[in-house]
Amino acid sequence: MNLTTTVSPPNGRLLLRLARLDATLMWRNRTALFGVVGLPAFFAAMLVVSKGNGSTTAGMESVLFTGTGNLGFFLLPAVFMNLLNVFTARREELTLKRLRSGPLSDVEVLGGSVLSGALLYLVQSAVIVVIIAAVLGGGAPGDPVLMLVGMLLGVAVFSLLAAALSGVTPTVELAQLTVLPVLLVSMLASGSMIPLDELPEGVRQAARLVPLTPVVEIVRTAYLGRDFTGGGDHGSVGVLEAWTACGPALAVLAAWVAAGVWLARRYFRWEPRRG
Fold first, then answer.
1. Which of 152, 179, 183, 247 is deepest in the core (most CB within 10 A)?
2. What are the CA-CA distances from residue 3 to residues 6, 14, 149 (Å)?
């Protein structure tokens, strides 16, 4: 049984209560906590340790390049990996089925988990912003509104992909195998850690269709006030120029949202897989 097409307005207070419950359950699961919190904490610590090493990437300090990339990359542990595990586990434990049979709407049953992952991601990102601004000397974000738009669209994309892929993941134990290809492709082809400029032309164009790539391009451009989009030369851009430069990346994210909605409706399951 897949996601329904009927969407009713969710109860905001109820979503917050469900999100708090999700956070509590995650805190009690040490394995999940390591992946969702430990991995970002490691990357944050590496930024501090790498301060002042003198290396440059894409014409800027490597720590600033990596730090702004982390603002996109943290979507994977906090949202994608987290939600895929949660949806798979609760489906197999019949928790989703029981919740759905009560007074909660479909949006509320899933929305609490999504809200919990989104808030965790935003908190982790706020920590990185503080490190960039106060420790690495990168200053405050040049366009926080554009940056937030890119991040929230990323949350939507990876929440939907997590819901869709949970439907083809038989058990929680196999969830790690499900996330591995997405994790590896995102690390290598999103520009979060390796500049896309260093990739061959054909690979570079394909990499810009990876769902994390437009998030990284938007966030990095918005934060640094320099054009890090597909056709950008990394020159300085104003607020309006930044929005214009990020137009194609925003369009790619919008396309991924539409694709994610279709995939989630097609593959998400409320009941355990059989066979």
1. 179
2. 9, 20, 26
Give the domain range for residue 38. Answer: 12-267
Task: Count the domains in the chain.
Answer: 1
In a domain, 247, yes or no: yes
| Gap between the Cα atoms of 199 and 207, Å rounded | 9
Residue 132 contacts residue 64 (beta carbons within 8 Å) = yes
- For strands 60-61 and 56-57, give the pairing: antiparallel
Note the pLDDT tens digit of each residue in 63-99.
999 999 999 999 999 999 999 999 998 898 898 888 8
2 falls within a domain: no
Predicted confidence (pLDDT) per residue in 2-41, tens digit: 555 445 567 777 788 878 877 787 777 777 777 788 888 9
Say if CB 39 and CB 70 are below 8 A apart. Answer: no
In a domain, 22, yes or no: yes
Q: In this structure, which amino acid lies at residue 222?
A: A
What does R_g of the chain's alpha carbons equal in angstroms?
A: 19
H-state helical runs in the chain: 12-28, 30-33, 39-49, 62-73, 75, 82-92, 95-100, 106-130, 144-166, 175-189, 201-207, 212-224, 239-245, 247-267
8 A C-beta contact, residue 175 and residue 169: yes
23/235 Cα distance (integer angstroms): 41
Which amino acid is located at 262 in the chain? W
Dist CA 27 CA 8 (whole Å): 30
The reply to whether 25 falls in a domain is yes
CA distance 190 to 208: 7
Report which DSSP code applies to 35: I
